[in-house]
Amino acid sequence: MDLTQVIVTALSVISTLGVAWFGYNQHTKDKSTDKKFEQLEEDKKERRAVVNANIGRIFGELHRLLHELHADRVYIAQPHPLSSQKYITITMEVTQHGVSSMAGYVQKLQLGEVAAFVKELATRDYRLYEDVFSIQDGKTQAIMCLGGTQKVAIRRLVNTSGDWIGSLFVESANESDFDITKVELGMRGSGNLIQYILPPYEE
User: What is the pTM of this model?
Assistant: First the structure.
């Protein structure tokens, strides 16, 4: 075998080995990518399951407040997006039979339109308005009146860093008096539970 044949044979072997190595390497990478993708999907499913479980617990608390406090409407309003907080939306709500929903009035409402009221929501831990006409923010007062609200108690919800992430509302649409002490204690207990499992609102 002359030198030329030796070189050709060697190059052929090297080429074959290179193709085989590339195929093996690519197969290994593909398997690794598939495993990473499967893990990501599994993690997403687990997070979704946790979020769904937390939402169920929150609705349970809202229903409990509705009945134990003899309220007409209980809901949560959340600012969004959390990074810039441009809007506020009612994300979860329960009502007594025959009582209209407030959620239709507060969907992606610009914070600037109710700036004075939002400032209270973000800074005051608890506030009870025994007459909605005592609310200083004109648009908020109008929205409450449209919903038939007579009295409203509001509890601020914060994350572990103390940042405002939403507000819990308990409303009465009739002339009967709230049991002020019972309302405040009930909202404090529920608020403490809700605020640490409340998922951020995603449009």
Answer: 0.80
